[in-house]
Amino acid sequence: MSTRLTGYRRPDGGWGIRNHVLVLPLHAAANLAADRIAAGIPGAVAVGHAWEAPPGDPDHDRIARTLAGYAANPNVYAAVLIAIRGSDVAISELAKRRGARVHVVAMADHRGTIGTVEAARPLVASLAKEAAGAKREPMPMSGIVLGLECGGSDALSGITANPALGVASDLLIAEGCTSILAETPELIGAEHLLARRAATPAVARRVIEVITGFEAAIRELGVDVRGAQPTPGNQAGGLTTIEEKSLGAAKKGGGATVVGVMDFAEPPTAPGLWIMDTPGHDIEQMVGMVAGGANIAAFTTGRGTPTGSAITPVVKIATNTSIFRRLKGDIDLDAGAIIEGEETLDSMGRKIREFILEVAGGRLTSSEVRGNREFAISRTVSPMTAFTG
Amino acid sequence: MTALRGYRRADGSIGARNHLLVLPSVVCADQTAALIGEAGAIAVVHQHGCGQVGDDVTFTERAFVGFAGNPNVGGCLVVSLGCETIQGQRVAQLISGRGQRVEFTGIQLMGGTVKTVDDGRARVNRLNELLALEDRAAASFEALMVGIETSRATLDRAFAIADAALAAGARAVIAVSETYGGRREVERVRYGERASSRLAAVEHAGDGAEQHVGLAGAGAQVIVSIREGWQAPVGCAIAPVVAVAGDQAMYEALEDDFDLGPSASADEILQRSVAAFNGERTASERRGARDFILRRIARTM
User: What is the ipTM score, two decimals?
Assistant: First the structure.
């Protein structure tokens, strides 16, 4: 099976299954330039964000790690970072250390947005041409780093799509892949089950720490987790409590051993199942996993969502046939077939595994066809409260 | 000073622009909103609307509603996913409650991206037909509200600009990152809430470009962005931004994106704001900036 896999070998040992040129603004003031630079160049893609990089931002390291990790994702052939000043090198240096091939264009060297666009477009066009000419090589199964996500869950999530994805994840891990289970608030209530599967007592402690820590951080705001979870859509879909949602959400991780726990946007260091500490917010979670190196993602949805990622193919799996049909063109696979009696959990799991491998080989997912590139940066503190004294 | 001419709104306010805004109620609808916007509207993108808790939910909801209710917006289309925390349908109702012309569409409601884009574009076309019938008319100076981005370092300068606006018969609103502690008497308004006095301060507006959304929510048709030395200019999707550099080196390095250098006087800044009100495009508008940067008061769930 593994002989048919192909990808792009990266100098640091990672494997890309896509070969994008990423145009990444390091500052909100560079969003427009980044967007215009990538526009109309096949293979080039830009994302935008709201960070103004204020001096002394307590979330600086987390955000820098996210941006640098995104640039260093193995699906990125080269990243063109749009800085304000050429002297702002912290993120580009970090990206290089994470294995990224980086170019920096500083707006201050080009009088502003228009000059920056004019200067960077030929560079991006030439990188995109190089990327398009690169050849895929045979890739080992260990080259796959799979991000697991669920969003817009309903009462069937924990019965169809999530456990089927868990079967797929277990099969892939047995073949040498890495999987990432995330969305910490949606693991609340399932921590004991995950801790029991930890590779070592230290990992088990981290699992408990991270999940109960998130709950405590939310409680410190003076609100009950249950105020945001389940969301209005989850409730309309038949979910009644966060525990019910969590027990279903955790099933995406199958039954594999939990080899480690990572902070947001950190890369896994060995194959197997990892837990990443991320919010449940679909886009923040996806960006965290991609910045951690996920080169493919599987996203189950009950209510239906069109979202994807700028650089990582996202395989979307409906929990019910009705939403699969209703959101035709936005969702790739229908795990509702389990309820319809056309598939078993096991056969659906194998089907998902097969589809993931096809996508790894170049088959485009719905969100890739649509060009979805939602992006969000996860913060741990209210943005500027630390400055107000 | 020249007379003002603007677009008269149902609530009595006067717009400096007649924009059609496409507002996603959640990040998951960003791409769909952007595709709809291609039909001839200003689509904003943002990363919020879901996984929010407590006061942060009402804070963001009020910011959406205030922004869409700004006098520069002649009409608004809200684009929802359907399962989000801040429900798009409710946001549309609240915007309508402020007297704004508003339409709604949703991805789960319509059944996917393609159908939502078709539906949204049809609504945009209908709204644009109505907007095309409107024209600028003479307005008194009192109609102008200058919004001023303010930091601790620039507070005195912000008040000098506000005073120039008040002296000309216009109104002014500043923004402060947390609570207002100055000696001047001001009306305190919340982020996203409309100001009713001649001089107001938006509290808990955050810093930098986050303040723009609060100033627009207060009713400012023109935003004066007094940047600090390290900051590059950021625009605002629905309002002309007069960007004033924080230092000479940054001004020279990014001259195309700034409107004025660090030594610009309060009167010069006001004159530029009045010209912008009447239709002169600022640097942010010339380059096509569509920034919409929201302040958040809690972490995401």
Answer: 0.97
